[in-house]
Amino acid sequence: MTRTRTPVVVLSGRLGSGKTTLLNHLLRAGAGRIGVIINDFGAINVDALFVAGHVDAARSIAGGCLCCLSDTSELDRALRGLGALDLDAIVVEASGLAEPRELARLVISSSVRGVRFGGVVEVIDTAAWAEEGRYDEPPVALDHLRVASLGVVHKTDRVAPDQVDRLEELLARLAPPLPLVRAEHGQVDPELLYDKGARGLRAGQLSFAEVLADVHDPHRSHSHATAIAVDDPRPVDPGRLLAWLEARPTGVCRVKGTTWIDAPGHRGRWVVQAVGGWVAFERGPWPRGQEPGTRLVAIGTDVDAAAVEREVRALLDDEGERGETDVLPLLRYLRA
């Protein structure tokens, strides 16, 4: 089976917004094997697993991995080490390293073949915004909102519901395409970020969740993702597919799957990954014994599942073989 590239998720947010809380939730929640790139081990709950308190290279610990960087010049080296491991995701915490746009650019342009960009998650501190009382100003820089793939409206338990609504209305005006999910105590469904446990665990190794299973977490509930899947033997219309991916439905954070492109010179299996406004394709032959077809999954929160399914099915093509020029718009998103 072809090994898929490991998604690299950039975790961003102002100081105290709850990035580390969210990261610790992912480590505890049975959310697969995660590699973590940070510049300070201080608040991560896996510190006790280290003999030394600081390392500067990739190191496998009990089914997961941590890297500690002093600056972004080391990012490719860390990604190369982590990308070679059997991980489900790599999370890069932006604090002290670089702005999220810069980190996203570095990941997208990385020469490391085993990884791919997995989006930017912006953690938004609702409580701090309400306390500051500047209700016409966003709690984070506009550039952070515009580069983000998912906005986590955090600490919603600390403010009145109408204040959360007011903040979300403000964010919707400033960054209308940005999917938003409410969260308390970092409880975000990992499915919104990556496929948990997609590769499974190697025999004899423990996941982070198993290592930390005895750590009590009183905050178990979180907003669950909705996954809408379409499996159809027909190919897709390349133009309609790309237009839909670039203007995803409200609430849809991720789109993944395989599509069948039926056009001379481009006929075959096209794997698609879309996070926020970022889209990438990889193409190749169909695995032996697998019939061509289109298998797409859209993942999000607070979505109209029936409407999204209708939109995905509308991408399917009944017009027969396409011309080579129909595929040209997809080529700019093609990754070798």
Describe the structure in your own words.
The protein has 336 residues and is an alpha/beta fold. The protein is built from ten helices and 13 strands. The strands form two sheets. The protein has an eight-stranded mixed sheet with strand order 3-4-2-5-1-6-7-8, with helices on both faces. Strands 9-13-10-11-12 form a five-stranded antiparallel sheet, with helices on one face.
Question: In whole angstroms, how far apart are the ends?
Answer: 18 Å
Q: What pattern of helices and strands is seen along the backbone? A: EHEEEHEHEHHEHEHEHEEEEHH
Q: Estimate the global geometry from the Cα principal axes.
A: globular
The pLDDT mean sits at: 80
Largest sheet features: 8 strands, mixed
Main sheet: strand order = 3-4-2-5-1-6-7-8
Helix tally equals 10
Any idea what the radius of gyration is?
20 Å
Strand content: 25-35%
Question: What class, by secondary structure content?
Answer: alpha/beta
The percent of residues in helical segments reads: 10-25%
- In total, how many beta strands? 13
Low-pLDDT residue intervals, each spanning 5 or more residues: 43-64, 199-221
Note the main attributes of this structure.
336 residues; alpha/beta; 8-stranded mixed beta sheet; 5-stranded antiparallel beta sheet; 10 helices
